[in-house]
Amino acid sequence: MPLLKKFLLLLLFVIPQVPYAADWAYLQYLLGQADIQKLAQQREWHILLHYQPSRGGYVSEVDDPKFFNAFNGKTNPQAELEATLKALFAAPTTQQHPQCAFIARYYWLKQQLNFDPVRLPPQSCPDFEQWFAQLQPAGLSLIFPAAYLNNPSSMFGHTLLRIDQANQNEQTRLLAYALNYAAATEEENGLVFAFKGTMGGYPGVFSILPYYKKVKEYSDLEHRDVWEYQLNFSQAEVYRLLRHVWELDDIYFEYYFFDENCAYHLLSLLEVARPTLHLRDKLPPWVIPADTVRAVIAVPGILKKAIFRPASTTHLHHRLHQFSPKQQDLVYKLATREIEHTDLSALDLTTRTKVLEVAYDYLYYQYKGKQANKMGAQHLRKLLIARSHLPSNIAFSALPVPLPPEQGHTSFRLTMGLGYDGEEHYQSLQLRPAYHDLLDPEASYTPGAQINFLDLSLRHQNLKLKLEGLKLIDIMSLTPRDRFFQPLSWKINTGWLRRQLNKGKRSLVYRTNGGVGFSYKWLDNVLGYSFLESSLDIGGKLQHDYALGVGGRLGLFVDVGSRWRGHIYTMVQRFSLGHTQTVREMGIEQRFTLSQNSSLRLQWGYHYFNHNQATSQVELSWQWYLW
């Protein structure tokens, strides 16, 4: 009997080790097969690990060590593949098994190496299965909210993916989930965010949240129109993407504002879903969300349908413009409690219903923006009750659908010009990587929004090539005011430019300029603006090496048809600290659109720089939007 007990005790220690001894042999076999097939060199493996070529080798864009199984997995695809295969043989555990934590890699290796389920038993992944079932994935949509100047991370627009469900319609799509990539920060200072975001100072992470929350954020809080692009991906491709997203849970990248941003990493997910796509290969060193939309839509057969989702304020503006001035007056007075809904009895039923409905919409807009007090909330309820007693089938005219983002001009602009400065002729060259100025063709861009980034200007004159200017950033927001909406217009720019100090003397200075003001629109094609602004110049040729001044600017944009836009402006600034000087300018600029990605500009300007001393300049330039 003691001998039998010893034998049974021996079995308890030996039997559990037999499968793992056999697994070790099978692991060596799989490693050999992976080496024969050169799996570590295949594009699919590099996409799953986010490898990019670097100095003759590879480096992963993922910066979180938890993402890798090998200690040198960030820079060694072969070592990471071998370590991943070894991890898949780990003993069952109550924690998440490596087959689950790295489920996209597991599925791909299983497909390539045809795993024997007896020698490498598949592990159950209840957490993943529950998460996957909650998403109910059946398709993908690329979501593009328009540019939002008040948020540095969204100045150029934004992109995210929506995980569409089966049998989804126009209403239920709000209940789907959205996949978003963003910097993980609560920083509210825009300048700090822009600086740290440019330098990779924030971790970037993926997150999944209900789509209706993002729609509420974009449409109701930030007043941004949204484009939804339903993409043609198979179920297997969608599943592959989501398995990879599961691997990225709680994994960080270094977030870079101009390249490794939301748009860039969403393209990498689409390449995971369909490795034959080479979307990121077509991008310049900087990544603009609108340009990535163009890159995706350009793939033959990938677009199923494009849907425009206007912001609540876009709807409200459209409805207000359908009223006469007298009817708009009634809307305003009804919303501000100057009159009651019972005072509308003289109107016909249709007009009364529309006035009441738009008054409610306007008051609700104010309430969401916290511009309405408690009494406003009570009045809002009163208007809603009054509206419910009127016919529900009263319809406004359909909202016109604007040109989609991919049909606007591209971001990188090359400009070549010929000019005369009152004394000599010159040739000019301008390179602007991004994004859009107020004279560029406005189709598909946010009206009144200007963002220029790294705008470089060179001038060739008298056999010399000189730097004319380099604007690091140049932002202007001209949002028209009216009785209902009263936003401030604002501008800020910083960079180097040549400043006229004396006759024939132009010196390079570094200028930071900012201003605030108002803008108004007339007849749908005329936009006027006024600014109170200040400038700080720094340069060795200035008295005391600096100049600080304040002044004002007036201007008018006029559209003649869809191809021709003119701009008339005048400004004055008095520099009273440091280098004292009064500067006055006036000018006319015109742009004529030749095609989606080319245009002509004609500019004339007159510049007073020292009492009665002045210079003039005229220039004709050709502009190409390259990518």
Write up what this structure looks like.
The chain is α+β, with helices and mostly antiparallel strands and 627 residues long. It has 4 domains: 34-118, no CATH class; 133-309, no CATH class; 324-388, no CATH class; 410-625, Porin. The protein has 16 helices and 22 strands. Strands 10-11-13-14-15-16-17-18-19-20-21-22 form a 12-stranded antiparallel barrel. The protein has a 7-stranded antiparallel β-sheet with strand order 8-6-5-4-3-7-9. The longest helix has 20 residues, at 17-36. The termini are far apart.
Short description:
With about 625 residues, the chain is α+β, with helices and mostly antiparallel strands.
Radius of gyration, Cα only, in angstroms?
A: 31 Å
End-to-end separation in angstroms reads 85 Å
Name the CATH superfamily classification of the largest domain.
monomeric porin ompg
Strand content: 25-35%
In spatial order, strands of the major sheet run 10-11-13-14-15-16-17-18-19-20-21-22
Number of helices: 16
Overall 3D shape: globular
Percent range for helical residues?
25-40%
CATH class of the largest domain: Mainly Beta
Major pleated sheet: 12 strands, antiparallel, barrel
Poorly predicted parts: 1-22
Number of DSSP-assigned strands: 22
CATH topology of the largest domain: Porin
Question: Could you say how many structural domains there are in total?
Answer: 4
Mean pLDDT: 89
Structural class of the secondary elements? Answer: alpha+beta
What is the CATH architecture descriptor of the largest domain?
A: Beta Barrel
